[in-house]
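Lab notebook page, bench 4
Experiment: in silico fold of construct C2
Operator: M.H.
Input chain length: 115 residues
Purpose: comparison with the prior construct
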Amino acid sequence: MEFVNRVHLTGIIGQVRVSKIGGTQYARVSLATNYAFKKDDCPVIETTWHNLTIFQSDKTCDLSLLEKGKALKVVGRIRNQRYTGSDGSEHYLIEIIVSECSLIEGHLVLETSGL
């Protein structure tokens, strides 16, 4: 039996921070995805924010092109981290380590009137 840790996300970029470790460039990106449904005949859009880490490679897009408001499609794996903050409190972080990504040109904005 094979166990797979793989996620596919398509969403809108929020914040972008591009940095370098040694000679490798990487970006920390927040990505918003939406889930639309009806509750008591009222349309509801639930937005989830995901933390992405994208290392520059031949399978990822040019990190300098990542901007707030652009649509992005990613494939990667989920990584969970637990750490203790400087104040002694426990923190839990869920992030997506991106292996493939591409910008989506001319993305569509979802209309909620049909829900």
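Observations: The CA atoms of residues 20 and 100 lie 19 Å apart. Confidence is low (pLDDT under 50) at residues 109-115.
Next step: discuss at group meeting.
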